[in-house]
Amino acid sequence: MMSARRGCFDEPVRDHPQMGFTMPTRGIWGLVVLVADVWAIVSILQSPAETARKVLWVVLVIVLPVVGFILWYFLGPKSGRA
What we know:
Elements lengths: L22 H24 L4 H13 L1 H11 L7
Helix pairs in contact: 1-2, 1-3, 2-3
């Protein structure tokens, strides 16, 4: 006989309708953000900008993954990207 999954304090775990994304959707978005950030970091490191600016951009992308990527895309050092 199978029992329900249990959460903290032995309460059954339920999908809450107000949580928004389901687990697979959040996983996909997380993967998209990871790929975008890796692309941004590689592009930053390959850019002709000075080292101090590269370090600042990489730190920004790592600390604030989504916001850092968006800022880098519009304001960051250009390296021949589209």
